Amino acid sequence: MQIGYKLFAEGYSPQEMVRQAERAEEVGFDFVEISDHYHPWLESHGHSGFAWSILAAIAARTRSIGLATGVTCPFIRYHPALVAQAAATTALLSDGRFVLGLGAGEQLNEHVVGRPWPGAVERHEMLRESLEIIRLLWQGGYQSYEGRHLRLVDAQVFDLPETPPQIAVAMGGESAAQVAAELGDAAFATEPRPELVRAYRQAGGTGPRYAEVPLAWAPDEETAVKSAHRMFRFGVTGWKVQAELPNVVNFEAATSFVREDDMRSVFGCGPDPERHVAVAQQFADAGFDRLALVNAGPDPDGFFDFYAKELRGRLGEIAPAG
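C-alpha cells predicted for F420-dependent glucose-6-phosphate dehydrogenase:
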C-alpha cells in the first residue's frame, strides 16, 4: 500500500502547492497528485494554476516523493502530442518519479478552446486514440497517426526518459476500465467501488489502482464538516454531473442544495484517526492500493502533523478486510 497526498490546485495558489508538496515529502507521503484543470469547481476556490508548471517546480524542490496528474484530459484543450512531450519532460526533471494520470475530462475545463463537448462514448474513443498517440511518440523517432478523431503528423519527442512514465487511466465505469486495462499501466478512481476494480482485472489489468480518499482534518468535527462543505461539496454530485456542467456558476447552482450532513456521510471529518482510517479502509476493501488522501479541512499544516503522528503508520499497513 502506498499513501499519497492530493494537491488541491483549485483551492490554493501555485506557490502554496509547491510548499505543500515539500511538506508532504517531509512527513513521509509516497506521492503527491495534482488535478490538471483550467477552472476551479466553485467561485470561492479562487485558484487553478497550470499543473505542468507546478509539477516542474515540485520536481526541482523535492528529491524522493512521487508525482502524478490526477488527471489530465489529453484531447480538446490539449493534443496528446503535447501531453506526451510534457509528461516526458516531467519524468526527466523528476528523475523518473512521475506517473501520468489520464481521463476523459470535464466540460468545465475543456470547453474553453471553443470546441463542442462530445458525448461519453466519443470521449472514450478519443481517450483511446490519445493513449495510442502518446505510446507511439514515446517509442522515439518521427511518428504519424490517423484516427477517427485525432491526427498526428510527423511529430517526434526529442527528450525522452529511458523508461517511459507509467500511465494511470481514470475509470468511472466498465468502458473506461477496459481502456485502463488495455492501454494503461494503472487505474484511477474517486469512489470505493469494487466493481470498478473487478472490471479492470477482468479486462486484464494488473497494475496499481489509485483512488482519492475524502478526509477533512480539524481540531473538532464541526469545523471539519463546514470546511469540507465549503471546499468539496461539488464532489458529492458524482461524475455524471461533474463531467457535463460547463461553468463555475453551474456548479455553484448544482451544489446549492448539498447539506453539511451529506459531507459528513462521505468524508472522514474531525480529529479522530479512527474515522479517517475507516474511510480509507473502504477503498482498500474495494481493491485500491494507491490511496491519495484529500484534505478538505481548513489547515493543511495541521493535517500534515496529524498524518505524521496518527495516520502514517496505520495507513501504510492497511489491507483489505479478510
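DSSP finds 13 helices and eleven strands in the chain.
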